[in-house]
Amino acid sequence: MSSDKVQVNAVEFFGDACVGFDELPEIDQVIVDDWRSFFTEPDFARFLSGQCHAARRSAGALAEAGSHGPSARVAALAHDLASTCGGLGMARAHRLAAELELASDGRCDARIEALLPRLLGAIEAAASRLETRYPAAQTESH
Q1: Which of 17, 24, 87, 113 has its CA 20 to 30 A from that of 37?
Q2: Residue 15, CA distances (Å) to 11, 32, 91 in order
């Protein structure tokens, strides 16, 4: 493997671009539907709103921590986001967060720089899509 190419869990990194995450679904609807089956519509809206808000809040903290380079804080926040996003069905964001955690633990600056903005974008895109699909959740968060 050349020095300008790194492969992590079947996702290739070339410089500051990574290939492979865009093929993942933004939302795993099976997970969302499973959650929805446990709640009444108003309770599901509150749950979804709270989870989207928590993911956005954690993404903001991660952006701040990530601006200072790799650290245990970045790894911990990425770990938390991997759990939050995975549990909510944000498939792409979940995978990006898990990869960011690995990169942070390994102090891989180039991978962190490539992953962080993609993760932040994936979280916002997934949260927005969920709120659009379930408008009551958006009303609950405002």
Answers
A1: 24
A2: 13, 35, 24
For the chain, the straight-line distance linking the first and the last C-alpha, in angstroms and rounded, comes to 49
Helix residue spans in the chain (DSSP H): 29-38, 41-66, 72-88, 91-105, 109-133, 135-141
> Which range scores top for mean pLDDT: 12-21, 23-32, 66-75?
23-32
- In the block, which residue shows the tokens 């929805």? 36
Q: In angstroms, rounded to a whole number, what is the distance separating the alpha carbons of residues 31 and 41?
A: 16
Mean pLDDT of 63-68: 88
User: What does the mean pLDDT of the chain come to?
Assistant: 82
Do residues 16 and 117 make contact, with C-beta atoms less than 8 angstroms apart?
A: no
Question: Could you tell me if 99 and 81 are in contact, meaning their C-beta atoms sit under 8 angstroms apart?
Answer: no
Q: Report whether 97 contacts 87 (CB < 8 A).
A: no
Which tokens hold the place of 119?
Answer: 């993760």
- Please state whether the predicted TM-score (pTM) of the whole model is above 0.85: no
Residue 37 three-state SS: helix
